[in-house]
Amino acid sequence: MKNEKAALALIPEALWRLLLVRIQLLFPFNRTAPQLGVKSLETPEVSSEADLPRIRQITTAIRLISRYTPWKSTCMVRAVAGLKMLEKRGIESTLYMGVARDKQGQMIAHAWLRSGSSYVSGDDAMQGFVVVEKFAKVLQAE
Fold this sequence. Notes:
By secondary structure, this protein is of the alpha+beta class. It is built from 5 helices and 5 strands, in the order H-H-H-E-H-H-E-E-E-E.
């Protein structure tokens, strides 16, 4: 219950982040890429116990509000918004970009975000995608 209330408190920030990222992704990707982290690297697949509740809250907030945005909150928009929310809290993450072929043989793309051992977004559809790039949002210890 406490975790759900904390996640609901993040809804306004999640909505704002989704909007900002949606606008940001209207520009060429090479302007956004440097903000995503270190290209071709991954962060560790372990999470600090202290970070797990916050990761879950951000995951819940992004997944919930992205269904109701008046704009299309694509997988990439959700992944980058989650990355930015985690970064603000000093939590590392890895953004993955993958490709696959749909049933008609057309190339399709997908993005998902992992923080430690938790998937923040996109894990519902990542099966069958081949990772073509990843970005590690590595944060310096203060």
